[in-house]
Design goal:
CATH architecture: 3-Layer(aba) Sandwich
Structural class: alpha/beta
CATH superfamily: Nicotinate-nucleotide-dimethylbenzimidazole phosphoribosyltransferase (CobT), large domain
Largest sheet: 6 strands, parallel
Helix content: 40-55%
Order of helices and strands: HHHEHHEEHEHHHHHHEHEHHH
Number of strands: 6
Strand order of the largest sheet: 3-2-1-4-5-6
Length: about 375
């Protein structure tokens, strides 16, 4: 078996007994029951993920930015040229991108993974805290409006790359994995994936991405619709087809970074660490990953609500409630990085707060 298949075989459901024990512990802490709101349930989720009460701190965190280009860019779905993908990778590696800044603030390291950038990339200079993993499968995906994005063998290779990266980062000490992405045109592929797995119309899930105008948005919606029709994934019945053949759907309308993210999501779950999701790219990958390894979903936490419409539809389909809603649509892992302190706060409150007994607080009814 490849790294992805091995990870799928190792995924087990999160520990609901640990979650229940964490909820009981919440009732013993020096606060009114439920007064920390969603932070309390987040702590219980972290306990279920790690099968420990209280849970280990989700730090250090590691951000994996999967980078690839998209043939669909030839259809005029973005004002940004494909060269920007490679240029932005260089920006990540020099520490100048938004995710670089936010990751430094959160004490996280950034690893960039080239799974399909249509240019040659160079590793960062010695001494850089960030790094490049060269795992190019092909030089950009196919144009999904006229052909499949990837061959089945290429999808499997990308799945394995993502799984191997997750394993490597956890082996190196990461206690929380953060999804990142880079690829001009990747919101087009993400819209197609969300439409396919959620059974939604192209117009419902397609957003402005890098900030396109009305005419370009109309063209983008048409391209997504064409891709869905070409691959037989259009219409309300598409969700059942995509669910029954998730690898085929991923290869038909996804991207190399989407497939790698699927591997990353599942292998993170196999290693029992929380995987913090960024925006619509990660959400679209989750829809495919959830069909390939249903129990893995319990290990994923939605960091924020992307401004891209496909994110809300995808998260609804997954039954996930994001931690933040800041109107972000940059990608890269930025929104997920901003949510990292909430995970740590949840773990710390459950671990470090005094109990009523230890604090000598009496006469409090904790049953309500």
């Amino acid at each position: 078996m490849g790294a992805f298949e091995e990870a799928v075989a190792r995924v087990v459901p999160v520990d609901q007994d640990a979650a229940d024990r964490a909820r009981r512990r919440q009732l013993s802490l020096t606060k009114p029951p439920g007064s920390l709101g969603r932070l309390e349930e987040l702590a219980c989720r972290l306990s279920a993920i790690a099968s420990e009460v209280p849970p280990p701190l989700p730090r250090p965190a590691a951000v994996a930015v999967f980078a690839a280009d998209h043939g669909v860019l030839r259809q005029g779905v973005s004002p940004w040229p494909p060269e920007v993908t490679g240029q932005m990778v260089s920006n990540f590696l020099s520490g100048g991108a938004a995710v670089s800044v936010l990751a430094r603030q959160m004490g996280a390291k950034v690893t960039v993974v080239d799974v399909g950038v249509a240019s040659n990339l160079r590793s960062p200079p010695n001494g850089s805290s960030d790094r490049l993993i060269e795992a190019k499968i092909r030089w950009g995906s196919g144009d999904i409006s006229s052909e499949d994005a990837m061959e089945p063998s290429e999808v499997r290779s990308a799945l394995d790359v993502g799984a191997e990266v997750a394993e490597r980062l956890v082996d190196e000490g990461a206690r929380c994995l953060v999804t990142g992405d880079m690829g001009i045109g990747n919101t087009t592929a993400s819209a197609a994936l969300v439409a396919a797995f959620a059974g939604a119309a192209a117009a419902e899930v397609t957003g402005r991405g890098t900030g396109i105008d009305e005419a370009m948005l109309e063209r983008k919606v048409k391209v997504v619709s064409t891709a869905l029709e070409r691959s037989g994934l259009g219409g309300r019945e598409s969700a059942a087809k995509a669910a029954s053949e998730p690898l085929a759907a991923l290869g038909a309308v996804g991207g190399l970074e989407h497939a790698a993210l699927v591997g990353f999501l599942v292998a993170g779950a196999a290693r029992r660490v929380p995987v913090l999701l960024d925006g619509v790219i990660a959400v679209s990958a989750c829809l495919a990953a959830a069909e390939m390894a249903p129990s893995a979903k319990g290990y994923w936490i939605a960091g924020h609500m992307s401004a891209e419409p496909g994110a809300a539809i995808g998260l609804c389909r997954l039954g996930m409630d994001p931690l933040l809603d800041l109107g972000l649509r940059l990608g890269e892992g930025t929104g997920a990085c901003l949510a990292l302190p909430l995970l740590e706060a949840a773990a710390r409150t459950l671990s470090e707060m005094a109990t009523f007994d230890s604090a000598g607080v009496r006469g409090v009814d904790t049953a309500t």
